[in-house]
From TrEMBL:
The keyword Signal applies. PANTHER family: BETA-LACTAMASE FAMILY PROTEIN (AFU_ORTHOLOGUE AFUA_5G07500), BETA-LACTAMASE-RELATED. It holds the Pfam family Beta-lactamase. GO terms for molecular function: hydrolase activity. This is Class A beta-lactamase-related serine hydrolase. Residues 66-366 form the Beta-lactamase-related domain. Residues 1-19 form the signal peptide. The keyword Signal applies. Transmembrane segments: none annotated. Keywords: Hydrolase, Signal.
Length: 379
């Protein structure tokens, strides 16, 4: 396997963003004239892997002065050729250059990991996708006898989102929050739709799935992730964050110039609490789509995409999203938290994949990610 590692100063710039990004101010400066469009940047990439690496690097250097995002790391692959690149800075105050092995909060990319574990347990006969929440978490939800694990995995449970603003007040984070406390916020709330009918992306679905995994295995969800995914795949830089302990070498995250690194999102748990690197995430998805983690039947269920257009995606399966590129459909997931944007996409039939982790606000980083994704997958 050929691997390249490089740290390149500068950032990609664009003024657009994927739908569903978290808060933050719009850019005050119009940079559309200096930032190439995703289509133009991808078109500049040739047919070889080296050409695509060069296109990403060239775009980063060309936009180094735009300052739309502080920095990013990129892991891309084409069959047995791989490269991990770093651009910009991981710490604005110190001016620390981003490194290829810097760690990020990966936000909702965590959901693909949680879904994989649930489907492994299905494969082992320890639970069923059509089991109800009530079966494994009796009394936790008023509507628990109507909502199945399949509904949770596909975001069609009908549950409203929990109001997590009570956990973050200004620059203070409430500690000691449990999954049970989080779920109680919606336990008696009316459903937004009948289970199975309406796709509405909700973090609460995967918080509940984490609780189900713990009920089935008798272990903490972090330990289950470590034993089933992180250790077997050699993901040494990946962990489920615990209170006050997200892990070492974590990049600082920003909304504009505001440092939001103080935000402790350990309570996102199975819905978004993992921290990792671009390389580790590339390894995880490569193992998933190659059949190393799930049998054919379970992987087919996971990748059976429901046609819904939400959060910048073109559909959703079971813990996996689909996005349209200039050269076809890519599968994976994206994530947003205040001050960061993460995406991981694969085209298994083409043998190509890309992971992009940005330590800047998601609404400003969307165009940056578009450029990288198109160059990596479609060059």
């Amino acid at each position: 396997m050929r691997r390249r590692r490089a740290a390149v100063a500068g950032v990609l710039a664009a003024a657009t963003c994927l739908a569903g990004c978290d808060g933050g101010a719009s850019p005050t400066e119009d940079v559309s004239d200096s930032a190439p469009s995703p289509a133009a940047s991808a078109a500049a990439a040739g047919d070889t892997f080296e050409d695509r690496v060069d296109a990403i690097t060239e775009a980063a250097k060309a936009n180094a002065d735009a300052g739309i995002v502080p920095g990013l790391t990129v892991a891309l692959a084409d069959h047995d050729e791989t490269a991990t690149l770093a651009f910009g800075v991981s710490d604005l105050g110190a001016g620390t250059p981003m490194r290829p092995d810097d760690r990020f909060r990966i936000a909702s990319i965590t959901k693909s990991m949680t879904a994989t574990i649930v489907l492994q347990l299905v494969e082992e006969g320890k639970l069923g996708l059509d089991d109800t929440v009530e079966t494994w978490l009796p009394g936790v939800l008023d509507a628990g006898d109507r909502i199945t694990l399949r509904d949770l995995l596909g975001h069609v449970s009908g549950l409203p989102e929990a109001d997590d603003s009570r956990y973050v007040r200004g620059h203070r984070v409430r500690h000691g929050v449990t999954d049970q406390e989080y779920v109680r916020l919606v336990a008696q709330a009316p459903l937004e739709a009948e289970p199975g009918e309406l796709f509405v992306y909700r973090n609460i679905n995967f918080v509940l799935l984490g609780m189900v995994v713990e009920a089935v295995t008798g272990q903490d969800i972090g330990a289950v992730m470590r034993e089933r995914l992180f250790e077997p795949l050699g993901l040494r830089d990946t962990r489920l964050a615990t209170e006050g302990h997200p892990g070492p070498r974590l990049v600082r995250v920003y909304d504009g110039l505001e440092d939001l690194t103080w935000l402790d999102v350990y309570w996102a748990g199975a819905a978004g609490g993992v921290t990792s690197t671009a390389d580790d995430l590339a390894t995880f998805y490569r193992a998933l789509f190659s059949g190393e983690l799930l049998d054919d039947e379970r992987l087919a269920e996971m990748t059976d995409i429901r046609d819904d257009d939400v959060a910048g995606w073109n559909g959703y399966g079971l813990g996996l999203a689909a996005v349209e590129t200039d050269c076809g459909t890519a599968l994976g997931h994206s994530g947003r938290l205040p001050g960061l944007a993460t995406e991981a996409w694969s085209m298994p039939e083409r043998g190509r994949s890309v992971v992009v982790l940005v330590n800047g606000d998601g609404r400003l980083a969307g165009g940056t990610i578009d450029v990288v994704r198109e160059a990596a997958l479609c060059g």
